[in-house]
Design brief:
Largest sheet: 5 strands, antiparallel
Distance between the termini: 6 Å
Mean pLDDT: 91
Radius of gyration: 14 Å
Order of helices and strands: EHEEHHEE
Low-confidence stretches: none
Length: 109
């Protein structure tokens, strides 16, 4: 059973394009450098271009821990901190939700 995390971000108006470019690099780094990362998608809200949602899928929660400890995650956080409006708790994602994937049309898990 895969482990899914869905962080939600609000990006500063003047940083939207830079954030999109950053997410292309970060998502590519995550899926190519991490054996436990099954997928990493960045989605932009159609009605509010400053809102983004990530859909990250890992083989298990330990793989997410590996992701968060990686050099490319530290690099991403350093780059994103001036682009993203922090949540009420000061973290970069304004909201973060964790799920256990129970079914998939591609692999049955």
């Amino acid at each position: 059973m895969a482990f899914v995390i869905i962080p939600e971000f609000r990006v500063k108006d003047d940083k939207v394009e830079a954030f999109k470019e950053l997410m292309v690099k970060h998502s590519r780094n995550s899926v190519t450098k991490e054996e436990g990362c099954l997928g990493f998608d960045c989605c932009q809200d159609q009605s509010d271009p400053t809102r983004f949602v990530l859909y990250e899928s890992y083989v298990n929660e330990a793989a997410l821990d590996v992701h968060r400890a990686s050099d490319h995650f530290a690099w991403y956080n350093d780059q994103a901190k001036d682009m993203v409006i922090p949540g009420d708790d000061g973290r970069l994602p304004q909201k973060i939700t964790f799920y256990n994937r129970t079914a998939s049309g591609t692999d049955g898990a």
